[in-house]
Write a structure and sequence with these properties.
mainly alpha; Four Helix Bundle (Hemerythrin (Met), subunit A); two-stranded antiparallel sheet; 5% strand
């Protein structure tokens, strides 16, 4: 937890420094980076788009594949279900509200159900990311955890964790695509 706090502090300080207004007369190339909220929203959209394209691109017959014989390794479909669950989880935590997921998507078995679950989770998260400002990202959120214990955190932490988690599992999905000799979405020629 200390590592996350130090990382976030460094991130906030870096974005604060970058947010300084450039003196007039400087070129557009030397203009400051976008605000933290805009950067985070763009970062999220890139990861969610790769995942949504992955869900559509893989054929349903490959949704049950594993990269090896180990039963403890998730299938392609189970990873998508896990991502639907986790996007609902992280974004509801960031909103400080009860998780709105209506099912455990990791138990879904059809491509249609998994794609729908993933897209529903993304629709929920899209609004959360787009509704943020630099100030709201640094607000403390309180939710109820296990054993009705109150948990407090900075909203930014849950939203960054969500994107990092999405990217981690997108990396898993790339392996599944490569095993099947399919070009993953992020490697397609534009």
């Amino acid at each position: 937890m200390k590592t996350v706090a130090v990382f976030l502090l460094c991130l906030v300080m870096a974005f604060s420094a970058m947010a300084q207004t450039a003196p007039s007369g400087q070129s557009a190339q030397s203009q400051p980076a976008p605000p933290l909220a805009e950067w985070l929203s763009n970062y999220y959209m890139a990861s969610r788009n790769n995942l949504a394209k992955s869900a559509e691109k893989m054929s349903e017959e490959n949704y049950g594949m594993r990269p090896g014989p180990q039963q403890e390794v998730r299938t392609f479909g189970q990873i998508l279900g896990h991502l639907a669950n986790s996007n609902f989880f992280y974004c509801s935590m960031a909103k400080g509200e009860k998780n709105p997921a209506t099912m455990d998507y990791e138990k879904a078995t059809t491509k249609a159900d998994l794609v729908k679950g993933l897209n529903d989770a993304f629709a929920y998260c899209d609004a959360v990311y787009k509704g943020q400002t630099n100030a709201s990202l640094l607000e403390t959120v309180t939710t109820t955890g296990a054993n009705n214990r109150q948990i407090q955190f900075i909203r930014l932490t849950r939203l960054i964790q969500n994107v990092a988690h999405n990217n981690e599992h997108y990396g898993n999905l790339v392996t599944y695509f490569r095993i099947k000799s399919i070009v993953p979405p992020s490697s397609e020629k534009k």
